[in-house]
Amino acid sequence: MTTQNTTNSKDSEAERFTLDKENKSSSTNREQEENPSFLRKEAKKSQENSIFIGGKPFMNYVTGVIMQFNNGADEVKVKARGKFISKGVDVAEVARRKFLVEQNVSVKNVAIGSEEFENKEGKLVNVSVLEITLKK
Hints:
Blueprint: H1 2-34, H2 36-46, E1 50-52, H3 58-70, E2 75-81, H4 85-99, E3 106-118, E4 124-135
Parallel strand pairs: 1-2
Antiparallel strand pairs: 2-4, 3-4
Helix pairs in contact: 1-2, 3-4
């Protein structure tokens, strides 16, 4: 009998969770409409095994790639754009050749392209984009 009570209480907890989730999703929709940066945050969450190259020290990114593989990732994407493309290539190669030799990491794919975005002055600018996919 206690099992049934536990099940019933779990069912009611599940219903409350579902209602809470529905309420949160409606507030999430409002957030998405009001705050475009929310969409960028959600996109980052969906790409957990990606390393975005920027202005930080070089070895920070190499360490990030190594940590992703050591935490069980089968693939890691190194993404860079604009003036950081050469740094992205270097990060992928140093991680692969110097630190991940035992794990037999290789380059699965290299994708290039361009993105158009609005700069600080309001002009539309094209920026080159590089994505290197490393796999075990």
